[in-house]
Amino acid sequence: MRVLVVEDEKKTAAFVRKALQAEGHAVDVLPDGASALTAVANTPFDVVVLDVMLPGCDGLSLVRQMRDRRIATPVLLLSARGAVDERVAGLNAGADDYLPKPFALDELIARVRALGRRNDPVKSPTLRVGDLVLDTISRQASRLGQIMELTRREYLLLEYLMRSTGRICGRMAIVEKVWDYDFDPGSNLVDVYIKRLREKIDSNFEPKLLHTVRGVGYVLKEPS
Fold this sequence. Notes:
Helix content: 40-55%
Largest sheet: 5 strands, parallel
CATH class of the largest domain: Alpha Beta
Distance between the termini: 27 Å
Shape: elongated
CATH superfamily of the largest domain: Response regulator
CATH architecture of the largest domain: 3-Layer(aba) Sandwich
Structural class: alpha/beta
């Protein structure tokens, strides 16, 4: 799934993102309600994990604005305020679930998974770009029936590119989504992994799917 985490506490945001990525989800993180509203209005997220206490537009206001705009993406609210009336207020605002802080990561992951199933119970676990197929359950890639052996990092890179089909992915965005740590801009680690991935998914096949946009990043797409 593609999950948006809206959390201004950097350590909590990094903690949640890392846990969800370990489960195979593509995770975006934003620190405030205003930018999150723009994101959910323009991107088809499967679940939003939303802190109630945010700078500017708080979590409850964001949920109300989403529902007013008929954005039906499931929302899991997080809050240090765990009283019953606080939970009721969150659910009445339009949230789908509520998890008080501090929380167990296993429970958060389970609730996100449940909301994703509720949102689209027949959603396919398979990603496709042309004749390239990625099974996100077995984490196995194939093209024209030929299975490709991927390392964990190669799989995460390919999944991110396939979930972003047709959209240019910058090097730093790739680092954030696939490596999830501070990165030396002078390093060629992304280029090395792109080369390895290209050798596996493109070298023996036509048409080529993984393209370099010079000075910008990479894009996975079928030729127009």
